[in-house]
């Protein structure tokens, strides 16, 4: 059994950021990163398809809003190797497209449609001051109005997260602004969006590579401390030992786990209640499928709420990946009808689901593990739908917190 100060499970953005923080700042500390796949990157990996990079788990971009994170990442892939884009994302309404977010771009609809949606927003519960509902479907209608809910939010979320929307909580939706009737009316009259800009309003994407190139370089920087092909089979929280499918085993003073809790086959000496909490965590997977033709659009990505179309999002590769052509579509695994091919990539774990019982289960799980020197980190370690830049920020903060404890 190999023993180290830190054992990091998973070489996605969270694990790579934490491990490189150790490498840069704690040269006397021993650590290893265990990665199931043959290379680093996790959900942000890229493959070459049709002569250019394709991001195998969907659209990933580096947001500009966290300059400290970007300074850290630019150590591995300097800023001059990135293009900076102003986000162009749209929603496919069937016979026409409008910009995203929906509520800020109703002015782009045909005039008679604008009138219908304005009337609906005017009587939305949040604008009338009615009590906020607790169930997901009712909450979306209360927040956005029945037409926005029916035309976009409910069908899109059903396609992306699965059909049982009532299993979802509403706690994660509070970041959505109220759809103000006054602002929407002004937007339609002045023909420009009002309100808060969405995430990724500006973003970076590599000039010559896919997004996975950044994380590949971060993995290379770890040298022999990164062990690929190591799939975690067992975890014992009491002894902080990990056993992999190939029989190798490791023990650490601290374990930072960034992999899905449910992906570990067995937890040894673990309380029954904690095993039940792990069993409550739900997620969805996706297929990314490449299509060679170019689309007549300047959009970077397009949301597709139509239930009759299997995929829920289009990433228009030729509009952000230099020298490429074609696009890829993202589909919930449960909705995939075509057979896999060389240009289709399936990911079992893509999105953590914000179910009603998740917050309490995750709080108990993380507290139990932390008391035993095991720290959940990132999208899967914390079971939160974090983008890669926020994941890196979380890793940097955890490193600083643990460094402070050691001081």
- Cα-based radius of gyration, to the nearest Å: 22 Å
The portion of residues assigned to helices is: 25-40%
What's the level 1 CATH class of the largest domain?
A: Alpha Beta
CATH topology of the largest domain: FAD/NAD(P)-binding domain
Q: What's the number of domains?
A: 2
CATH superfamily of the largest domain: FAD/NAD(P)-binding domain
Rounded average pLDDT: 94
CATH architecture of the largest domain: 3-Layer(bba) Sandwich
Characterize the main sheet.
8 strands, mixed
Tell me what portion of residues adopts beta-strand conformation. Answer: 15-25%
Molecular shape: globular
Q: What's the end-to-end separation, in Å?
A: 28 Å
By DSSP (H or I, 4+ residues per run), the number of helices equals: 12
Q: Indicate the low-confidence ranges by residue numbers.
A: none
> How many strand segments?
20
Structural class: alpha/beta
